[in-house]
Amino acid sequence: MSHDSALHFDLALDLPQLSIQAAATLPPRGVTALFGPSGAGKTTLLRMIAGLESGGRGQIRLGDTTWQDTHTTRRLPTHRRELAYVFQEASLFTHLTVRDNLAFGLKRARSTDHTIRFDDAVAWLGVGHLLDRRPERLSGGERQRVAIARALLAQPRLLLMDEPLSAVDADGRDAILDTLEQLPGRLGIPIIYVSHSIEEIARLADHLVLLSAGRVLAAGPTNEILTRCDLPLAHGAHAGAVLQARVVAHHPDEHLSRLAFDGGQLLLSTLDRSVDSAVRLRIAARDVAIALSEPADSSVINHLQAIIVDLADDPNPAHCLVRLQVGEAVLLARITQHSRRRLALKPGMAVWALVKGVAVR
Amino acid sequence: MNALLSPADIDAIWLTLKLAFTVTILLLLLGTPLAWWLAHSRARWRGAINALVALPLILPPTVLGFYLLVAMGPNGPLGRLTAEVGLGALPFTFAGLVIGSLIYSLPFVVQPIRDAFIAIGPRPLEVAATLGARPIDAFFSVVLPLARPGFLTATVLGFAHTVGEFGVVLMIGGNIPNETRVVAIQIYDHVEALEYTQAHWLAGGLLAFSFIVLLALHTLNDRQAKR
Fold it and tell me: How many other β-carbons are positioned within 10 Å of the β-carbon of residue B78?
């Protein structure tokens, strides 16, 4: 069997309130987020990929396995597609204990080489102490942990997750996000994650498919899509860039940690991570300022040399957006139109990006 | 005082139980697919079938019995069919009584099961499919256990209702010992003959039976809900 698990789909469906017309090829590994406002068709598209939505047409291929083909009317029923699906709300079988819920998928696993073992899934999701309980005696977060473990035990070649954290309270959400971050490294299968939370996407997604009114607006690496000035994401209140960084050194005397990314280095207050560990950073557009020369008398400690790639107006008439190339990385800065005129900023200019705040994920 | 129940009374009780068991088992087997269809079909004539299933709830048993008698008679469609396949006439036989009871008790079995299927909704089936369960597997491993309270209600109501039927039996079954003379008919006979003591024993027994059945149903359902 081929180990190439790139998902390709080209699907169309007409519903009374929505018409889907979406095509994309997703990378064979890592998390691809389906992102868009509510009503954009994210869930419907996910259900079509799973074969749960009737009436759609088009093609779905996972690696060299065809799940659906318009021309040959070949259409595999859901139970024969090697996928697993985590639903938005708790979907555990209420007549079974947690253990039996987990065993349900394992017993029916479509692949015989059980690469994900029962004990592993239980340990990864931290549900070992819940095995003999019934679903109604679990919290929302515990239920979703069990649902995710159950999905993994079905030994899927594609994992679909439909806003799995929307019914989980804030604390539980954070803990599950920590767990989900570990999954791609453990699984080696593509994961499609539907969400309308930019925060979840900034933490999890390697790849982004932006949906709007049933159509694919853009698709590509997360940071590229997040920072493109022609797309709505760069204009939201939470606009910003996501950087993949690595811990280089700790400076205990200063209570600072030094991190390296594709475009330079950053100093952050001490991180509880070992040297060389990978860290995902989020830098909000409003936390980046621009100077024409490196300021010697500023309290901001992170100064990065950058080239202006693009300038765009913001919905707020006082502001504008600046897309900055910093080495191989891209940052987004939101500054005032006033400063833009005063500094005469133009694409191609070499400037300094002053980073006032960095969120660590 | 002689024995509380005469041999004829005991025969009537056995016949009634035999009828109720037969009818309940047949209704569970036939009613489950029908209930599934009613719960999931989007056919336009689903409403009509739903109404047809509910009809015995409001129709006077004598009306139902009358039409059944006509249908089973030598010139009725059912009667011709049974004559053709060599089964003979159905009226005034146990088989005829079973068919009449199947129709009479149909809504009491189909409706609770249908409502249980509707309450379960499509989600557990979708979950089962994404976990690799084929539809028939999902039905037995997920839908049936989840619909258990509905099946319990259907079984008890179907059984008890068949035990208590009178009008339809009188119309199509008559009053033949060990063939069609069920407890309800036997009580009627006792009253006609002014044998009030005998009637009391049978009627009181039926009353107690019905009460115990309903009590058991509620207890079982409560326990299920609490688990």
Answer: 17
